[in-house]
Structures are given as structure tokens and as C-alpha cells.
Amino acid sequence: MFVDLNPATADVMESLSEIPTTGTEKPQQGNQCLLKLMSPPELLHSLTVTDVDGCYHISCVTSDRVWVSDDDDNLMLTDTTGVPLHRVEDSCRGYNRGLHTVNSESELIYINRNYNINKLSEDMKTTTTLIERTDSTWEPQCVYWSPSTGDLLFGMYNDDTETAKVTRYNQSGQLTQTIQKDNTGLGLYRYPYYITDNNNGDVVVSDDDAVVVTERGGRHRFSYTGHPSGSGLRPREICTDPLSHILVCDVITETVQMIDRDGQFLSHLLIRPSGIFRPCSLSYDVNTHRLWVGSLVNNTVVIYRYITRQDALTDEHTPCPDEDAMSSSTPAV
């Protein structure tokens, strides 16, 4: 059984009751369920990750295991108790960057200290170099494995020219796409910190002061620059959910913001203005519909759910896969 975080549950989540849901519900493939926004979201669990100095990036592996990295070279596998299960010894330093991702085989793909792209087997016994760095002028800053295509997406930066780009590699390790400029010839990116994609194939990048979104083919769709109030944006980790929302951690307002697939602000999912919990990292588990949120300052990871499954015929709540098992195995706080 889960209980609310103490002491400041009210600070953590904002009601989603004002978010328009028309057109956001979609049947989940393979069943008769609809995915719907919950109001309010359900706060499930909190853990403190040991042996890291801040939770700068999270990659979900299973319902109870995630990879967490900090601003140094610590890349740890942990469970819902926060105890480290494995440490990667050759990870690149990770200040505010998405240095790792997990594929469908539960294998870790990460940027090592030589800026090569390595893959660690699920049993953590074998490390393979997937892509070797051959151009010393470009450094990979972030990586994402796309569940829909199996491609690897990279945010790249060139220190000499102070330019940035996105590259795509197929499953054979071949470069298939470069995204760098808009239709006027101007650079799209300043410094890509994190990268992901959306259900429609859009490539979503957390840049220096905006979330930059391009179509699958590379055409610039929009850049989200923050809440309509004009507070600005300093984005860190981003992720998307099954309803095609884009979630972004903002350092300025210390919030997790939800925008729709077209860049319109919908809500703050998480607010901690006191600074006790500063959201910096995100990972959405599509199997359990749980969002993992990591803090910049105190090694805390919070898990909560804001999307639920409902039976399309009865309109009753349908448990997520392994939901009951996880509820009994994950310790309450």
C-alpha cells in the first residue's frame, strides 16, 4: 500500500482537472482500454538513491529498476529501495545531459568517457561498442533509443564552431539523418541536453532555453519557450507519454510542465517552489504508466501516476500490467 509523501504532498502535484482531454484519449493497442488523465495524479512512492550526487538523468528498465546518473561519472542501476545494484565504470561525465537510454531488450546504451556509444547487456556481463567516435570535432551530448523505429537519436555539439545538431542512426549503426537548420538556414539548436521522440515521430530536444520539436523528416514544427506568463524556460530532461504529451523539467520555475504535441502549455504536473525537491530528470514507464522524477539536489526520486487505463465498454478502471504485484512489492514511504 502506498501513502502520500510527507511533509509536503500539496506542493508536489497540481490538479489536472482544468486540462482539456478532448482528443487526447486514444485506444491502447491490443485491448479495449482507453488511456485517460487522472485528476488528481496519484503519488506512489519516494526513494533516495545512494552513491550519486543528484539525479540528473533516469532511464527505466523495468517497473522497479532504473538507471540513474549524476553530474560526475556515476551511472548506477537501482531499485525502488535506492540501493545500487550495478555501476558502469566508464561513463562520460553527465552534467545536465541525457547520457544513457534503454532498448527493448533491457540493455543499457550509454555515452562513455571517450564519447563512443556502448551497449551493456541485460545481465551486465558484456559491453559492446555500437558506434565509435570518428569525428573529434563533434561530441555526443545525449542519446535516446526510439521504441517505434529502433533508431538511436543523438544531440551533438561542436565546441570549435559552437554549433549543434541532431543525428539519427539505424539499427545497423549507419548514419541516416542529420537535423541542424530550419527552413531559413538558421541553426535549430544551441546546446542539446536531452532528446526523445513522440508518438507521431516528432523529434523532441531539450535545448539551452527551449524545447525544440521537429517532424520525423527534420522540418521545424515549434519551439516551446515556457509558461504563457513569460517566466521563461531553462529545460532539462524531457519525456513523452502515451497521450503524446511532452513533459519537461524547468530549472527556472522548478516545475515539471506538460505541453501538448503542438507545443501548447497544459499544466504544471509538479511544483516545489521551496527548492527542497528540484525536478531535473524524467522517465515514463509505458508498461505501468508510472512517471519517475529525479531531484537535482537531494538524490530523491518520486514515482507517481497521472494516466490511468479504463475499460472502453464498462468505463471502469483497469489495472495496469503487474500493477497489483508492484503495489505489494514496492515499499511504501
As a percent range, the share of helical residues equals under 10%
Number of strands: 25
Determine the strand fraction and express it as a percent band: 35-45%
Class per helix and strand makeup: mainly beta
Radius of gyration: 19 Å
Measured between the Cα atoms of the first and last residue, the distance is 9 Å
Biggest beta sheet attributes: 5 strands, antiparallel
Any descriptors?
about 325 residues, disordered C terminus, 2 helices, mainly beta, 5-stranded antiparallel β-sheet, about 5% helix, 4-stranded antiparallel β-sheet
SSE layout:
Layout: H1 9-12, E1 33-48, E2 57-62, E3 65-69, E4 75-79, E5 84-88, E6 100-102, E7 108-111, E8 117-120, E9 127-131, E10 139-145, E11 152-158, E12 163-169, E13 175-179, E14 194-197, E15 203-206, E16 211-214, E17 220-224, E18 235-240, E19 246-250, E20 255-259, E21 265-271, E22 279-285, E23 290-295, E24 300-311, E25 317-318, H2 323-329
A few lines on this structure:
This protein has helices at residues 9-12, 323-329, and strands at residues 33-48, 57-62, 65-69, 75-79, 84-88, 100-102, 108-111, 117-120, 127-131, 139-145, 152-158, 163-169, 175-179, 194-197, 203-206, 211-214, 220-224, 235-240, 246-250, 255-259, 265-271, 279-285, 290-295, 300-311, 317-318. With 333 residues, the chain is mostly beta strands.
Describe this structure in words.
With 333 residues, the chain is mainly beta. Helices cover 3% and strands 44% of the residues. The strands form six sheets. Strands 1, 22, 23, 24 and 25 form a five-stranded antiparallel beta sheet that branches. Strands 2-3-4-5 form a four-stranded antiparallel beta sheet, with no helix packed on it. The protein has a four-stranded antiparallel beta sheet with strand order 6-7-8-9, with no helix packed on it. The longest helix is centred in the last third of the chain and has 7 residues. The N terminus and C terminus are likely disordered.
